[in-house]
């Protein structure tokens, strides 16, 4: 049986321009859709649901190559850093 690795990424982001929860959800939905499409990753908002300017997103990927997972999850962090509206506050990558 071959080895399987699971990579997770948790990011905390700020959307300073969001004046309402609806504003925040619109930005977060667009970000999640874009990340799913470009990085083939599972993503969900896992925290900060009632905060109009902050969100915590959780990502998961499965591979047989731990280095690939680390690189792929790091590229998601870079993608978020380059987003024009979303500000990356903190992130954590774990590989199991």
What's the topology here?
Elements: E1 5-14, H1 21-39, E2 42-47, E3 54-63, H2 66-81, E4 87-95
Antiparallel strand pairs: 1-3, 1-4, 2-3
Shape descriptor = elongated
CATH superfamily: TT1725-like
Content of β-strand:
35-45%
Structural class: alpha+beta
Radius of gyration, in Å, reads: 14 Å
Q: List low-confidence stretches.
A: none
Count of discrete domains? 1
* DSSP E strands, number: 4
Proportion of residues in helical segments: 25-40%
In CATH terms, what is the architecture?
2-Layer Sandwich
Question: Any idea of the CATH topology?
Answer: Alpha-Beta Plaits
Span between termini: 17 Å
Order of secondary-structure elements: EHEEHE
Please describe what this structure looks like.
This protein is α+β, with helices and mostly antiparallel strands and 96 residues long. The protein has one domain (5-95): TT1725-like (Alpha-Beta Plaits, 2-Layer Sandwich). The protein has two helices and four strands; from the N terminus they run βαββαβ. It has helices at residues 21-39, 66-81; strands at 5-14, 42-47, 54-63, 87-95. A four-stranded antiparallel β-sheet has the order 2-3-1-4, with helices on one face. Strand 2 (42-47) and strand 3 form a beta hairpin.
């Amino acid at each position: 049986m071959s080895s399987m690795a699971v990579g997770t990424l948790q990011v905390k982001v700020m959307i300073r321009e969001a004046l309402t929860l609806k504003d925040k959800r619109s930005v977060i939905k667009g970000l999640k859709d874009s990340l799913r499409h470009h990085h083939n990753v599972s993503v969900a908002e896992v925290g900060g649901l009632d905060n109009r300017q902050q969100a915590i997103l959780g990502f998961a990927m499965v591979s047989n190559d731990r280095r690939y997972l680390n690189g792929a999850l790091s590229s998601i962090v870079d993608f978020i850093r380059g987003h024009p509206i979303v500000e990356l506050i903190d992130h954590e990558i774990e590989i199991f």
